[in-house]
Amino acid sequence: MTLLDIENLTVSFPQHQGVVQAVRGVSLRVAAGESVGVVGESGSGKSVTCMAALRLLREPPSRIAADRLELGGIDVLRAGRGQLSALRGRVAAMVFQDPMTAFDPVFSIGHQIVETIRAHRDISKADARAEASALLARVEIKNPDAILNSYPHQLSGGMLQRAMIAMALSCRPQILFADEPTTALDVTIQAQILHLIKELQAEFGMALIMVTHDLGVVAETVDRVVVMYGGRVMETAPVQDIFDAPLHPYTQALMASMPGRTPGKQRLVEIAGASPNPANPPTGCPFHPRCAVADAHCTAEAPAFRALSDTRAAACWRLA
Ligand SMILES: Nc1ncnc2c1ncn2[C@@H]1O[C@H](COP(=O)(O)OP(=O)(O)OP(=O)(O)O)[C@@H](O)[C@H]1O
Ligand SMILES: [Mg+2]
């Protein structure tokens, strides 16, 4: 069953200097229970794609369009306020790099998790609080009842990250978007939290979209990888194929720059040349200025993203 179905998504931000084209025709499908890693260098449109899927971007200034944008059967672009609220609790949840963005500094952690639960379910405050406490215990917080009474600024980064995951899971979403959920933490805690997210994914039977710069994390956590560049998807393939037999020249450049697969140590390396300017993207394939095998066709016309087999797809004229 397809849970997230994105076809030809574009997101732009009109500005004085011109229009920033953050996402330029992304198509992405995620099945129930599937875990997908999204990789690509800074500014490639990973976060904006996730935010747009949940309609978390302010419109205006952002402008979102798609041939299809469905999440759990809900037409995201036509959803009303009530449907969007259900979408963001029961269907999907998101955890961010900075947990302070998920919590309101003026309310206790407990209050915020209880309110989140009660916004989506008809359940008493006491029951919601018991559930919140159990969830905090599940994310390996040792003294859950004390933490429920704490305020966000009283917790360490790692604790707050765990509390944010607990809050995200409190409505039992079918899909979790995790946008660089551990980059701000030290390496040992990163590994623990990623391990936890993976465990919870299996336990809750959720789909997972994991945005990360860490290819070691990708190798250990996901079934399939989506490689983004310049606001487009360059390639998607099962995780083993991305490492063993990358097809797109950009994916090949990424893999060539990667010596091993230890989580926390395999930050995506910048490859030679400048990233495309999203306010003035190159003609044709966005990667052509940095591509070793680009020809006139690549400069003139953007390649369509197309299937190469049952499990693989890419946008590259040289793979035609
Ligand atoms: N609110 C905004 N207004 C204008 N431009 C924006 C806005 N949000 C994002 N952008 C631009 O959209 C492009 C894609 O941004 P996005 O945050 O999705 O990149 P990313 O792949 O998540 O990068 P990173 O790995 O650094 O998190 C970037 O050029 C960014 O500057
Ligand atoms: Mg981002």
UniProtKB/TrEMBL annotation:
The keyword Isomerase does not apply. CDD domains: ABC_NikE_OppD_transporters. It is a peripheral membrane protein. GO terms for molecular function: ATP binding. Residues 4-255 form the ABC transporter domain. InterPro entries: AAA+_ATPase, ABC_Ni/Peptide_Import, ABC_transporter-like_ATP-bd, ABC_transporter-like_CS, Oligopep_ABC_C, P-loop_NTPase. It is found in: Cell inner membrane. The keyword Transport applies. Keywords: ATP-binding, Cell membrane, Membrane, Nucleotide-binding, Transport. Its main location: membrane. It comes from the Bacteria. It holds the Pfam family oligo_HPY. Signal peptide: none annotated. Belongs to the ABC transporter superfamily. This is ABC transporter ATP-binding protein. The lineage of its organism: Bacteria, Pseudomonadati, Pseudomonadota, Alphaproteobacteria, Rhodobacterales.
